[in-house]
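Table S7 (text form). Paired inputs.
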Amino acid sequence: MRDEHEGQVSGESEVSRRRFLAGSAAAVAATATLSALPGVAGSASAVARPTGTRPNVLLIVTDDQPKDTDWATQRIRNWLVGNGVEFTNGHVTTPLCAPSRSSIFSGRYAHNHGVLSNGHSYNLDQNTTVQRYLKEAGYRNGFFGKYLNSWNVADTPPHFEDFALLGPVVYNDGQYNRNGTVQKIPGYSTHVIRDLALDFIQKGTSDTRPWFLVVTPKAPHGPNTPEPKYANTAVPAWNGRPSVFETDKSDKPAYVQDAKATLADGQRIRQDQFRTLLSVDDAVQSIHNKLQATGQLDNTLVIYIGDNGFAWADHGRTAKSVPYRPSIEVPFYLSWPAAGLGAGTTDNRLVANIDIAPTILNAVGIKPDTPQDGRSLLTPHRRWHLLTEWWKQGNGTAGPTTWASYISTREQYTEYYDLRADRQGALAGTGAVLFREYYDLVNDPYQLTNKLYQATQRDERKLGIPALAARLAADRESRGHL
């Protein structure tokens, strides 16, 4: 249902969307063509052949990668944007690693999958995950890199048959659970993960099953340790954005008023993130080359996303976990040439990490038997707003309190609550609203002016706050769809 607050989309955006949907519709014809092909060019012993209508699926999830990191990922963009689709309004529904990754796997909001923080990873019902559906459909599932925070590295990740879990998550000489054996694998972790992924893809030339591969490097998460060849690479200068220089924060919650990060802090984090992302750019290019060399590129659905964004001193903060755009907006790309999604288009729909699992299942032709909050990006569905949410952990006083936010392309309404999650994810507190924010994202994209600060009831009615609050309350209780 369309919100009354949302405006019309532009003609250019509608053209891009029609192209995308035309490509989606072409998937049926493309898979029929693939099934009719006798094989693809190359050596029969070295090149994979189409195995019917189901695509391979490659999911790449980076760690703490915000938008505006294009310079460090030029080859990724050449592939997945130049030969795919860029979602210009990509979001995460909880800007924290484990909750976001659980939403990616399950297609569900955190309030439904139960992983409310990095300490609640075992709350995820593994039977609701995309890897479970694909394994039962005969897919060969692989996972290499960071799994879920607080997951015991010795525990097998359910529904994956070939895996190397990195834990603790480090850049150099990491400890991995390699198919059930915990061992040290020397080397820069982005390279290790890359090489394991290449071997997995190569096996597709002899194993006729379609495959699902998840690649999750540590980069660009702190401490942002680059590989030696990029340790001193110069990155383009960046002189901040208006949210970095906000001086009057009296209209913001207390934790923002107390934040003191400077432009120099943001510049340092940005530089270090870029340097680690250069290695990810190399790794993804190697994966592209392997797919191409083995004849698997065209019928591989590739999805790339950051698990959350990160602030570069915006509003004085260098972190995530907050309801501001640098924290919740992420790069989000998709490519699938065999389905017509390889031409290089943009899509301005409001999309999120919860849409990834439904998209994969739709592409494979599986209807889930558990509710999902997301929608397939291969359909014409367009949402007009999105829920984002985050929970305060424990009894500490630092940082934000629990919050939830209504977001559209035009406006954002946020409520902070008297709620805390314990070690098991159980909530305590009155639930009372402690603070509220409203931003006009069209005229105030950097979220400098909270229009609810000192607002009268009449002001709130003019902004449509009662309706937004009611919608937000309903979203927080939502239970997905089948």
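Next pair, protein 2 of 2.
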Amino acid sequence: MKRILIVKVTSLGDLVHGQPVVADLHRAFPGVKIDWAADASFADVPRWNAGIDRVLCAPLRGFKKNRSGAELKAIFTSISELRREKYDIVLDLQGVYKSAIISFLARSRRRLGYRSADLGESGAAFAYTGRFAPREDLNAWDGLRRTVADAFGYEVSGAPRFDLSIPRSADPSVKPEEQPYAMLFHATSSDVKKWPTAHWVAIGRSLVERGITPLLPWGSAREEQEAIAIAKEVRGSRILPRMSILQVAQYVDAATLIVGTDTGFVHLASALGKPTVMIFTATARRYFGVDVPGVSVSVGDDGRPPSVTEVLDAIASLEPLP
């Protein structure tokens, strides 16, 4: 086994979950080179993994939204780059049309994808020469690890190794504070995953009392308004400017504590070994929760949002904090 292509194009949390597969494949096949194909929006994640040789990316989301000539040209350029290497195996861990097309265009006689019943889009099946079944009895990253191990015929061993290293910022506008600070990821992609503003205010005030500055990131105008509402009630908190994925990751990497809902940056925090509390309100903690003793903990569950007390107790369990 000389070269493998992994296709997992979106989203942030899913790409984070997939990174331990890289270390597993290196253990199973010493000397193998691993490439990763991702949407340009999330390509930073595999770039942070030194175990990945090439990161192939195209502005798929951007072209779908804008239909610009520059983005179309970038997609054709990425196809040429994709076909520069020949692969022993292409592994599609996404299972939708766009990932299937990438898999099909890659130079390989073996292209593995999910069974038809497990595909995100059934039409993606055209691309594969072999099929595998996902392990649905485990959480997201262990499930992926064992799914890939089953497909390649090796055994999973040890704790997951994410091997992510966030580059230091060369941008003078990105200045993670020297004093202890906590990132409060209050924003989510879905309203049902939100936690009440009053609860965030209570957490923020508790952190300020301990000398920890709450920082409030956001990604849309609506999320900015939510951050403003929290900051008005938490003296000493600070609203961050709108930032790129890399810039937010740099703040996460330097943080004292991360508290947030089931979102990609909170999963990234746990993968980086940062003290992390993940709040569940409408997704299943069993499948998506983080739980590393002394490092990360999940509270709440699908249909059972946690109380402020539960979250504060979870923060206390990650001592020592300032």
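The mean pLDDT is 93.
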